[in-house]
């Protein structure tokens, strides 16, 4: 009887060990570290000094990393990845300062604090929308209203207007809306002189509300598209609104698509 109980305990222990091993082996996704920045700001971040680190400015492209000689091990630190980021490796043990510069004109001073840790992905999130020269050239290659229509057609079909890039939502327009309407910015694409937002608008009230495109007129807004199109929004439902905004704060009048 004792032998049988001992055998059962051993079997149970083996099963628990196998279960624990499978739990430990389960893959875990580690999200990028988001670092808010503004032009010419300085931030302090932890860097691995045992593994590579990837630095990214979403919606922009890092074109240079400036540092004192010998701070980084890889000579090609200024060469970007496919996502516009740079991979940096250091063997430093004390904090040091370097600068990242982007295609969109952003310069950030970074105090790197070396640590023995896994390599990490750092996303520097700028509060200023990027302006792309190739997108600006496309915008100006055709009549203004035609450009606005082309932008709306591109994003509505799941594409991206020529020269535009998706970036974290920043500097979203502020609307004067009825209190029972809530607006949630979901996406933003930066162009040259224009950028476009995808918003979710929800009716939190108890009665239907009219949602004409003119309801979303605001400073620098150049075009508005409600899709699926509806003149009213029922209680507890939402709709998508696409808003095209001028980066320059100037335009040739409002145009609603």
From TrEMBL:
<feature type="signal peptide">
    <location>
        <begin position="1"/>
        <end position="25"/>
    </location>
</feature>
<dbReference type="InterPro" id="IPR055397">
    <property type="entry name" value="TraK_C"/>
</dbReference>
<keyword id="KW-0732">Signal</keyword>
<dbReference type="Pfam" id="PF06586">
    <property type="entry name" value="TraK_N"/>
</dbReference>
<protein>
    <submittedName>
        <fullName>Conjugal transfer protein TraK</fullName>
    </submittedName>
</protein>
<dbReference type="InterPro" id="IPR010563">
    <property type="entry name" value="TraK_N"/>
</dbReference>
<feature type="domain" description="TraK C-terminal">
    <location>
        <begin position="136"/>
        <end position="243"/>
    </location>
</feature>
<feature type="domain" description="TraK N-terminal">
    <location>
        <begin position="37"/>
        <end position="126"/>
    </location>
</feature>
<dbReference type="Pfam" id="PF23536">
    <property type="entry name" value="TraK_C"/>
</dbReference>
């Amino acid at each position: 009887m004792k032998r049988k109980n001992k055998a059962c305990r051993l079997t149970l222990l083996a099963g628990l060990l196998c279960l624990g091993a499978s739990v430990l082996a389960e893959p875990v996704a580690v999200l990028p570290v988001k670092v808010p920045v503004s032009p010419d700001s300085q931030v302090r971040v932890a860097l691995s000094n045992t593994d590579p680190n990837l630095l990214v400015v979403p919606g922009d492209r890092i074109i240079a990393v400036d540092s004192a000689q010998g701070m980084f091990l890889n000579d090609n630190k200024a060469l970007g990845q496919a996502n516009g980021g740079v991979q940096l490796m250091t063997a430093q043990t004390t904090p040091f300062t370097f600068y990242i510069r982007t295609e969109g004109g952003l310069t950030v001073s970074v105090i790197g604090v070396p640590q023995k840790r896994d390599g990490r992905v750092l996303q520097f999130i700028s509060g200023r929308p990027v302006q792309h020269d190739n997108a600006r050239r496309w915008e100006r290659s055709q009549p203004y209203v035609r450009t606005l229509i082309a932008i709306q057609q591109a994003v509505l079909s799941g594409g991206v207007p020529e020269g535009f890039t998706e970036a974290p939502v920043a500097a979203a327009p502020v609307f004067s809306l009825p209190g029972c309407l809530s607006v949630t910015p979901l996406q933003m694409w930066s162009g040259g002189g224009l950028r476009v937002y995808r918003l979710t608008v929800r009716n939190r009230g108890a009665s239907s509300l009219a949602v004409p495109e003119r309801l979303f007129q605001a400073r620098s807004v150049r075009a508005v598209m409600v899709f699926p199109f509806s003149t009213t929004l029922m209680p507890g439902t939402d709709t998508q609104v696409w808003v095209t905004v001028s980066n320059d704060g100037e335009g040739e009048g409002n145009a609603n698509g």
